[in-house]
Amino acid sequence: MPATPPTRLSTDTKLSYAIGNIGLQMLVASMSFLLMLFYTDVALVPPAVAGAALLVGKVWDTVNDPLFGWLTDRTRSRHGRHRVYLIYGALPLGLAAAAVWMVPPGLSPWAAFLWIAITYTVFDTVMTLVQLPYQAMAANLTHDYDERTSLTAFASMGALLGFFAGSVLMPVLVRTAPDASTGYALAGACFGLAAGVAVAVVAWRVREPDATAQPESADTRAAWDSVRATLRETLRNRPFLMLVGAVGLVRLGLTLVQASLAYFVIYQLQGNKGDLPRFMAILLGVVGLSLFAWKRVVDRWEKNWAYILGLLLCIAGLAALYGVGPGQQSTVTVLLVVIGIGMGAHWIVPFAMVPDTIDHGHMQVGERKTGMYYGLYGLVDKLARTVATVLVAGMLDMTGYVPNVAQSTQALQGIALMTSILPALCLGLAVPLLLAYPITRTRHADIRRSVGAREAGAAGR
């Protein structure tokens, strides 16, 4: 019988686990906020070309997330089921992340398409092989309902520091170079190195509990049947589907903001590229301060209600952004404070909810398969990110965006919609799903008792 994870985790384990999120989210943030701007305004790739190239990687993502999730569930290694991927993935992740920011100058549109599609697909594949097992480790480190929130709070603080580095420090590093192209290449290399080291720290310091892996099969057809069976079991988990649907909508909305914000600040607000790090520092600083408050809220409320409250605050702030005009930096600052408080809930609550849905699936089928759950969760998350990036690229192309010049009224209208109204709508659509989410603190205790009774019965036979 698998060893039962400890109810309480040491502070050292939580801090070490959080370090991994610093490196991973550093990469996520830099690409969410700056990659499209880098392609259009520095590498001078047409927006439609860049968007189409990024989409190629996500087509592969529709296969690799569930497949890699199934693979980690069946992995047997002396290093652990998930930790082994962190050990051998740290260096490739750093190299692949750096390559994304190194687009050779003067490429034709077709050559630029191939370069972006190949480098980003390789990066995305390695990122999945590292990030998915990293996330799945959290579900197995503890089964306690509230201790998961505590671990998530530590991981969220690490994610916040990573987001700060990716969105605030990267533009600063770029400006220290003699030109933007060199600056992005050097910053990308530094970030890739930092991410690799962060993942290596988790592999070194965090030990996952022993778990019995599924037996390997030499029959390829049997293996694919196992993939399909595991996928079917996961898709029958109603609380998980409701949660991942809500989180996907929220991710779509927030990525629209992230991908559009640089254009909004530079062209709609008529600021300069130095304003973006300042605004991001304000936003992420508020998110960081709010995490402590959200931890207390989640300890007293049900998780879904805390998440809904955060989304409503975000919606109010985002909708108000639509009316902001040139030079209204102080108004943007106030709205970012409101949005940041709301975003704090998204940084902590859903990641504490996923393991609870996995427990529900364990109760349903009698087996604990974290990999497939995190594979599907990661798939929806990354598809939402890609759809948002492609939507922003399409908007820029359709509204006649021209890099590095004053924009037309039509282009500014498109940028404002992508930064405010559409994201607010996406977050609003997530609220009904969260209202219907069924796992409460009491319900989770019942689930754990049912699983424990089943395991005790199996051990007694």
Automatic annotation (TrEMBL):
Alphabetically ordered keywords of this record: Membrane, Transmembrane, Transmembrane helix
Family matches, as InterPro entries: MFS_2, MFS_trans_sf, Na/Gal_symport
UniProt keyword annotation of Flavoprotein present: no
Cellular component terms per the entry's GO annotation: plasma membrane
Organism superkingdom: Bacteria
One annotated GO biological process: carbohydrate transport
Transmembrane segments: 15-39, 84-104, 110-130, 151-172, 184-204, 240-264, 276-294, 306-325, 331-353, 374-395, 415-439
Any Pfam family matching the protein: MFS_2
GO MF annotation list: symporter activity
Family: Belongs to the sodium:galactoside symporter (TC 2.A.2) family.
Protein name: MFS transporter
